[in-house]
Amino acid sequence: MASTGDVAALQAALAAENAAIFGYGVAGAHLTGSSQAAAEQDWTGHNQARDALAAMISARGAAPAAAQAYYQLPFRVHDAPSAIRLAAYLEDGVTRAYLGLVAVSDQRLRRFGALAMQDAAQRRRAGHAGRRAAGRVLARQHAGLPRHAADSMIVSTSGRYLSQTAHDHERRRVGQVASCMIAAAISSSRRSAP
Predict the structure, then answer these.
(1) Number of structural domains, the chain?
(2) Which partner from 3, 95, 99, 180 sits 20 to 30 angstroms from 14, CA to CA?
(3) Full pLDDT tens readout for the chain, 194 residues
(4) What Cα–Cα distance (Å) separates residue 20 from each residue in 10, 17, 46?
(5) What DSSP string describes 101-160?
(6) 18, 20, 140 from 25: Cα distances, Å
(7) The domain spanning residue 77 has which CATH number?
(8) Range of the domain at 69
């Protein structure tokens, strides 16, 4: 019989995947070209993850929680830069949800959670190229910067203009924090395992 902690962690990951599916539908409506194609690919990946999680929950004798009819977005999505910010926000939420799976006692679920976190981190990182391009456009439109100055600027997920160097530093810091969180969760689950 599956532990209630395992099922709860799976349900939390399922809820995050359902929110991501909804959010990518909104984001995709504001994107075009390769950004929209990437969002559609990410949306498909979240659908596949949702189906896998639902199957794992059912295999443990529980009913997968249904998706909500509507999800409150964290901010207004009205253009490509805000759509790209939303995608990054969604991937952060998925990563946090899978962190709960990394902390369970079942080694297969821990591995599944760790791989899912890695996938979310890669999707988020892949979005940096789109954010950089959108940030250049935004920098030129709103800051009156010439093209050559805007080319070295990007918009962080918080909406601030950052130089490429500052952005790289922020990305490394976030990656280091995520690595520490994963290591702590694995260590904690090993200590609590019988």
Answers:
(1) 1
(2) 180
(3) 568 889 999 999 999 999 999 999 999 999 999 889 999 999 999 999 999 999 999 999 999 999 999 899 999 999 999 999 999 999 999 999 999 999 898 999 999 999 999 888 888 877 644 444 444 344 334 444 444 443 333 333 333 344 445 545 545 554 555 555 555 555 555 555 55
(4) 15, 5, 7
(5) HHTSS-HHHHHHHHHHHHHHHHHHHHHHHHHHHHHHHHHHHHH---HHHHTTEEE-TTS-
(6) 11, 8, 28
(7) 1.20.1260.10
(8) 4-192
